[in-house]
Batch of 4 targets.
Target 1
Amino acid sequence: MRSLRDRCARPLRNLRLSVTDRCNLRCAYCMPEEEYVWLPRRDILRFEEILALVRVFAGLGVDKLRLTGGEPLLRRELPALVAMLAGEPRLRDLAMTTNGVLLAEHAAALRAAGLHRVTVSLDTLRRERFRALTRRDDLAAVLAGVEAAQRAGFRGTKLDSVLMRGVNDDELEDLLDYARAAGAELRYIEYMDVGGATRWSPEHVVARAEILERLRARYGAIEPLREDTSAPAQRFRLPDGTTFGIIASVTAPFCSSCDRSRLTADGMWYLCLYAAQGVDLRGPLRAGASPEELAERVRAAWSARADRGAEARLAARHEAPLLSIRSLREDPHLEMHTRGG
Ligand code: SAM
Ligand code: SF4
Ligand code: SF4
């Protein structure tokens, strides 16, 4: 079978699966508002429905699946879903991105259920700053989660840090030192204007070039690593062998090799992080569509895909947040915490 390609010859390989739009943090770059419109509970896919859709995607080439949210660990019985997904042999990689608050509680069960890898989002190592940035006093729980993941046997753990100028960019080096000591790999993420980032401004973005310059000044020559071109992070090595990544979605978008798409907790499928519209898969699934019919819907949409959202944003030299609070209220699917990051 010829592999499925979009209009820019990009394959369908990576699926980010949001299992809930709820979150137990309120990160300033993702959920800065006081109130949110949530997806109706009756619309949230049951585990069997998620598995049915994942099988359709696996049949069309998806071999990497990442559980996300909102906060995925808020979804009840998540290890049971992991066990169901781990039984799908076409998935080579089964990972999860979490804010880590509940990870200490669940790490062992997730590992036993067959989860391969975890990524923990961690933007600061200072308690007061964590509280200001997330509106919750949970730094100790997150750090305990990182340690628990290591103890549970997870390897290849990543720590993702969104850098914001004047907020946490003075911790650039401390975060790297912490990750190294914790046996994890740090990835710096440029602050994006996507979804609910209604307080975004270009001055807050710390660009890849600046990150590299600062690390070079502190640690010496930095060697870029050459590898898998579809991965969002470009990886580098310090003179002492420490590796780290940078996801430069703002200043150096990687749309040309983007093989990822996103399924929300209520079964809307988005072909780009910036896409205004999604493809409804819950409707047909609940109306009794066969796996072949669902596959045809996915195939048709992917074949027509021409999205290059981050490149378009860069070309437009954006100066202000992309979305208004009003448009986010009207369609919560536009939110990063709904779409899964
Ligand atoms: N709650 C989980 C977490 O925080 O890891 C998973 C969902 S969260 C939406 C996924 C990722 O999106 C996180 O690593 C977060 O830092 C990132 N993210 C959210 N808003 C962002 C923004 N405006 N710019 C860059 N990354 C962002
Ligand atoms: Fe923060 Fe993730 Fe929750 Fe967004 S979804 S507020 S990034 S923890
Ligand atoms: Fe892929 Fe869209 Fe992100 Fe570009 S902006 S890397 S096309 S999801």
Target 2
Amino acid sequence: MENNNKPENTKPGPAQEDSGCSNGDSSSKRTQGDFSDPVYKEISLANGTINRMNKDELRAKCAELKLDTRGVKDVLNKRLKNYYKKQKLKQSAAAGGPGDTYYDYICVVDFEATCEENNPSDFLHEIIEFPMVLIDTHSLEIVDSFQEYVKPELNPQLSDFCIQLTGITQEMVNEAESFPRVIRRVVAWLQEKELGTKYKYALLTDGSWDMSKFLYTQCRISQLRFPQFAKKWINIRKSYGNYYKVARGQTKLNCMLTNLGMEYEGRPHCGLDDSRNIARIAIRMLKDGCQLRVNEHLHGGELQSVPISAPLEGAPPPQRPKTRN
Ligand code: AMP
Ligand code: MG
């Protein structure tokens, strides 16, 4: 059940100084000067008490407050702190302010691509599965999903390694359509949900590669311009590491699940199952008070960080990518 072999970013990664993730309560809407409010003293005292609790005490407190009791000590610590912070801010008359409205939906994407064992560095990965899982950030539930396989053009024959890894068979891709046709249906699906028009949304991926490598390479192969709506996304590994204060090596999919006290459901490296499990982590993080926000973008083909101070904008309305001349 190993699912941690996705190639790591080899591109120089964006700086880690921004968390891409902040507490999802009204405190983030305040200006710095407002932190003199006595409510912050109360929050700080509560945090001190929580920091002195051992794992059993944290778990017992979570149970008493009817919070999820799963996860490692750091996760329980963060969950409790967030609970008290929210409670105290709610009670405080000073809490609030208009601020940025949050995304209505988060759309998780996890591509599967052609590959070989120990992919040569110049290997051109082609997308063979395009899955999406839609999270309603108000109900904190998965509300819909999309999945299509894609016929690769440069290397139409899948390697045995790729078939074993992803569970995608030669017949599945033979019967599938090429990427330009599939992306049209992806766009139509997103439009049908009124994302980017009626509803504010953001894309979310596990790592930087889905957009900066797989989609970027595929668009060049298919002679399409990179779609505007996919230029910014939430990299959940980065958000997770910053929120729960864990090292980068502990933010692989299985690691995140384990530390949250959850198990992988489905088949690892099936794009749709991977997306569902990433969505489960995102929902858990939102429930724990993390305001997942866009933290990476592509600029002129280069992967860059989005600073935490950037306004919380939703992705633009999805449109069919134009062909490159
Ligand atoms: P994942 O989302 O982890 O399933 O990985 C996405 C894609 O990365 C896969 O479809 C493969 O193309 C590639 N990949 C993942 N793990 C490996 C591996 N161990 N060796 C070669 N390619 C891999
Ligand atoms: Mg995957």
Target 3
Amino acid sequence: MKGSLTIVGLGPGAAELVTPAVTDALKHSTDIVGYSKYIDRVRHARGKSFHPSDNREEIDRAELSINLALRGKKVVVVSSGDPGVFAMASAIFEVVDKRSISKEDLPIVVLPGITALLAASARLGAPIGHDFCVINLSDNLKSWDIIKSRVIAAAKADFVIAFYNPRSKSRENQLAEIYNILRENCNSDRLVIYANSVSTKSEAIFETTLSKADASLVSMKTLVIIGSSSTKKIRNTGYIYTPRYSGLEKN
Ligand code: SAH
């Protein structure tokens, strides 16, 4: 039997935000591979072999998935949110590239999921209605200098900026440094939003400004959004949006 490899995103947390295509792929799988916390979200599926692993073992997990699929298994690799956003899809293609695995030997399908930024944005209103950029603040796989230079460039370009992986136990003080860099490079009345565990039972969303933003309130479960100079809050309703126009008069 020919195996297959499907890389899927489980969305931000809520069951109803898992796409029907992902549900279908899980249903037809024999083996499910992923970080143990994400595997827990699909453990109710019957008759599957589960392969949970630690968060940092992405390349080992990619090798395992590919080897299982080459042995004829129908493998689904699960990520949270979207599998292409700071998640497993890149790790798998890295291994496919290194091992020169052909499409004939192993067809690969990537099924999108709702990434944390889209889920958070929908809760708030329309904060990414104009140009935005996304930066992963983890320095596990890139240098802290690269991160800082990208933050400065994004601030100078007046993007709305979303920070994934903003803070962890091993990186407790870096976000405060990022806030100082932002304060030097853009106006400190910019809106700052902390979107925690969006679409789960512990969802909590807070909003402040760059001048008051306290990095110690942020965790691994937070997505941080920094508004651009035109991002605003509608008084009375509290919706936050970024207008679609910039540098032009509204008509
Ligand atoms: N592939 C995932 C991102 C993985 S990186 C996606 O597309 O969403 C992990 C980071 O994503 C976390 O540190 C946090 O910043 C963000 N994140 C993931 N799920 C989230 C959620 N439900 N609410 C808020 N942020 C979330």
Target 4
Amino acid sequence: MTGRTRLTVILSLAAIVLLGVVAADMVLRGPGQMGDGTPVRSSGQALVGGPFTLTDQDGRRVTPADYRGKYLLIYFGYTFCPDVCPAELQVMTAALDIVGDKAEKIQALFITIDPARDTVAQMKDYIGNFHKRFAALTGSADDIANAAKAYRVYYKKVAAEDGSNDYLMDHSSIVYLMDRSNKFLVHFPYGTGPEKMAAGIEKFVK
Ligand code: NI
């Protein structure tokens, strides 16, 4: 082996090892955790969830500690959403109806990703349309950004096509079930029906 060949071999091996490290890092962190804002769309995201400080529909500042002892069924959306959010909140409501008394062990949370329009009063008015186990949480732009980050939720303002001041929010639509101490259990992707969501709740909520 000439010195030059040996150097080539060593550099190649180094490159392969480096690629292996990068690949392992991607596998461990997962696609939703690369810090590039990629929304979580797949299962097994054990790192979903974390602390938050938000304001509920009665104006109280709340953290996960306020709900300790309850399973959390969490959805991020916004009250001005024309279709996806009300449909998802209906599915959650139907699922909670199906599980019956078990719903008492669950705190459902609707967290806005549009705090500019979703005031405390707006959230209170809106959440009255859905299951009584729901609390509706808003906060400052930073409060919401922090909560969304903790739950790997993507959201982005989209200007109205007609150029008016109205706007839509592009956002991920995932329902999370967390355990009694706000640890991730399972998620329900968009399109999950009420029966399937109820079955998932039954499986974890004891
Ligand atoms: Ni929506």
